[in-house]
Amino acid sequence: MLRLFVYGTLKRGFWNHDRFCRGVLTVEDAVVRGRLFETSSGIPVLKVPEEDILAVGTTNPLADVATQSHVTTRMSNPEPTPDRLPKKSTGTPWGPVYGELLAFDDPETRLPAIDRLEGFHPGGPCLYRRVLVPVRINGTVLPTWLNAGDCHISGRLTSLCGSRWPR
Question: What is the structure's pLDDT at 92?
Answer without folding.
Answer: 61
